[in-house]
Design a protein that fits this description.
This protein is mostly helical. It is built from 4 helices and no strands.
Length: about 90
Amino acid sequence: MQQIRVNKTKEINLALNAIRSKKYPILSDSEIIKLLIGQEYNEVLVEPVEILNAKESDEIRKSIAEIDSGKLKAYGSIDELLKALKKD
């Protein structure tokens, strides 16, 4: 498992404290961050799949699983993709 490190700045502290006081008083900072990332993942990647037809949804789920397993590579930008294509 890979780790992500976040430097705790004044702004991050303020945001975490605000979120903790309104919604998640018993969660640690890392638990709040994981929860928020999971919610964003569901909004961006999972929910749009539900509006597609069954075949399209299955294909997208397969692609996501292949990216997660390392069989496919996801590129963060067009520039990254173009660089990879030029290498091949």
